[in-house]
């Protein structure tokens, strides 16, 4: 069974440009600032609801998140 990823449809940055330093939680929609830019394979934690996600960079430069 394939893993389900949530797409990040925010246009504040992308994997191709390498400068995205925040993410919107797919679970609660809260915006979470980050110290470092998002990267493929990174694990991120929502500071509001506590859910953890694995970040996947797509070929078109966007990010997807899978709850872990």
Automatic annotation (TrEMBL):
<feature type="region of interest" description="Disordered">
    <location>
        <begin position="1"/>
        <end position="21"/>
    </location>
</feature>
<protein>
    <submittedName>
        <fullName>Uncharacterized protein</fullName>
    </submittedName>
</protein>
<feature type="compositionally biased region" description="Acidic residues">
    <location>
        <begin position="1"/>
        <end position="11"/>
    </location>
</feature>
């Amino acid at each position: 069974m394939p893993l389900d990823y949530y797409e990040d449809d925010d246009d504040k940055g992308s994997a191709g440009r390498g400068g995205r330093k925040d993410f919107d939680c797919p679970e609660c929609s809260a915006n979470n600032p980050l110290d470092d830019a998002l990267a493929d394979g990174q694990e991120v934690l929502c500071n509001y609801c506590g859910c953890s996600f694995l970040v996947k960079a797509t070929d078109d430069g966007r990010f997807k998140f899978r709850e872990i």
